[in-house]
Amino acid sequence: MKIQFIGAAHEVTGSCTLLEVGGRFYLVDCGMEQGADIFENVPLPVSPNQIEAVFLTHAHIDHSGMLPKLCKDGFCGAIYATEATCDLCRIMLLDSANIQQSEAQWQSRKALRAGEPTVEPIYDVNDAQAAIRLLRPCQYEEILQVAEGIVIRMNDAGHLLGSASIELWLTEGKETRKIVFSGDVGNTNQPILNDPKPIAETEYLVIESTYGDRLHDKNTGDPVAELAGYIQKALDQGGNLVIPSFAVGRTQEMLYAIREIKQRGLIHGHDRFPVYVDSPLAVEATGIFLQCSHTNFDEKTLSLIRQGINPIWFEGVTLSVSSDESRAINFDPRPKVILSASGMCEAGRIRHHLKHNLWRRDCIVLFVGYQAEGSLGRKLQEGAKSVRLFGEEIAVNAEIATLHGTSGHADRDGLLHWLAGFTEKPKLVFVNHGDETSCEAFRDTLRKLGYRAEAPYSGTEFDLLTGKSVTLTQGVRINRAAIFKGSQRAKQVYEDLLAAAEALLALVHTRKGCTNKDNAKLASQIRALTEKWKK
Predict the structure, then answer these.
(1) C-alpha distances in angstroms, 125 versus 23, 59, 62, 72, 122?
(2) Which of 30, 318, 333, 452 is the least buried, fewest Cβ under 10 Å from its Cβ?
(3) pTM of the complete model
(4) pLDDT for 230-259, tens place per residue?
(5) In whole angstroms, what is the distance from residue 37 CA to residue 12 CA?
(6) DSSP 247-280
(7) Which CATH number applies to 223-402: 3.65.10.10, 3.40.50.10890, 3.40.50.150, 3.90.550.10?
């Protein structure tokens, strides 16, 4: 009976842990690495077709994003997750597959022009659909025997709709051991969702440490009132409030807050101010929030529902799905609020809204989530005077602000509070899902409090029957310099290409009313250019 750490070991993303029980193999999470990749991950030591099942803590791509790749490589077992997580995975895995395919197509066209081999996507829509077909929904607190020697129970982790901490009872012969995976532990008193549910007992614990080395600012005041202040200021100036927001979770929290702002009459002189949600994924996710089981919601949200009040819907909100609807937002002269993804401004429609609003002194860009080092969002937070978007240098004249008190992760004290729910200290705590600093700092905090705690690197293996290590590994760092330089250059070239395409489209719009002969000539030239680069 063994546990081996594969991903999110001394890193935040790419969660993946392998369990071996009675000669059979199981995974807890199968996530994609995102952002900075500091350490190499060991490959799975078994073929995907040998894995019996996956137990999924929640739908975020850093926990679920490699499930389609697992299926592509032969996995055909069950994927156990809460009902809401299954619903979210159905849209998020397809969205991820479309991104993989689009990026591979662009890289392949570039490779062909250089006489190099084409690039295959990590996975495609068919692989995502294969993973979706394997989803098996579970209810919170339902004790479920999923295989011989494997019993699971999922508890509300309060991090995302459907997020779970997973209890597993593992039996091999006459020996049974219990292990708990915390998943991502939510922050307390967040809108919509329940607080994380404590668990009474376990022998082994795998716990996240995203913010294991720090505390959230407890003196931030009322985030709803703070958000109302930014809305009031932008509208009074005649400008827009642009909110880069993660499509799943944070966007719905912002809608909840804006509904409350309207209900409480916190905005003066702009009673019917418009709000746009410009992200197809966010629109789909919002639909899931509206339709999901009420067991996911906290008492305040349930009280609203009992009163007939939709907690995340209100007069004046517009959902933009098509590209035409997205473009139309920037031609709406009214002062407004724009919620758009991606939350770190690295991709998606938010980049178009930044292009149209950053240069305006009457606008405000408000960050409501974590901005990773090196991301466009972090650069704006750190005071960049200009940024490059679609091949064009854009002056940053808008106010750049950050809304406090919105983190979806427990801080150090929040994690310790959740840990205090155990009636006895676990025999051994494994700390993962944190960068090197936070992971090791939280391990050291636990040791000072009397816990036996380890912060394993990828490849480290423990025997759960004896509680002793089988294989201890050290982190192998990746040399990022050459990779980063190449990827940044590729990104810049692609943005220049998009800028050229926008310029061409703008030229076409100016041709209305010109002679048929000239327009036919231009159309012929565009078609010829298109056909040339298809080859």
Answers:
(1) 32, 17, 18, 11, 11
(2) 333
(3) 0.85
(4) 999 999 999 999 999 999 999 999 999 999
(5) 9
(6) TTTHHHHHHHHHHHHHHHT-S-S-TT--EEEE-H
(7) 3.40.50.10890
